[in-house]
Amino acid sequence: MVTSVEWRVSYGTDAIVVVDGGALRVSEVATLDEDVLKDYLTVTGDLNSWRKWRGWQTVEGDDDPEAWGDLVLGRSDDGEVFYVNPDLYWE
Questions:
Q1: Cα 52–55–59 angle (5° rounding)?
Q2: Which residues lie closer than 8 Å to 43 by C-beta, 6 or more apart?
Q3: What is the average pLDDT value for the chain, to the nearest integer?
Q4: What is the DSSP string of the chain?
Q5: pTM score of the predicted model
Q6: Which residues contact 34 (CB under 8 A, 6 or more apart)?
Q7: Are 46 and 40 in contact (CB under 8 A)?
């Protein structure tokens, strides 16, 4: 699997994370606010478009994607949406 950028939620806390497909580990997390979430949902570019956000932090330690919560929406590194959980998305 390629690298993906995923919106995950855990106990009401949202995060946008970069998941390295080969290792299936979270390598970065973005500080999530309303503007970042809007960009994530509307930007149709590739991973480089999201790299322009300020607030990316390298993840050390808790790098299991499941530890970051349930997957709400996943996009591949070319911008294609590959997964949507409609219940969490509309919550």
A1: 110
A2: 49, 50, 79
A3: 87
A4: ---EEEEEEETTEEEEEEEETTTTEEEEEEPP-HHHHHHHHH--S-HHHHHTSTTEEE--S---GGGG-EEEEEEETTS-EEEE-HHHHT-
A5: 0.88
A6: none
A7: no
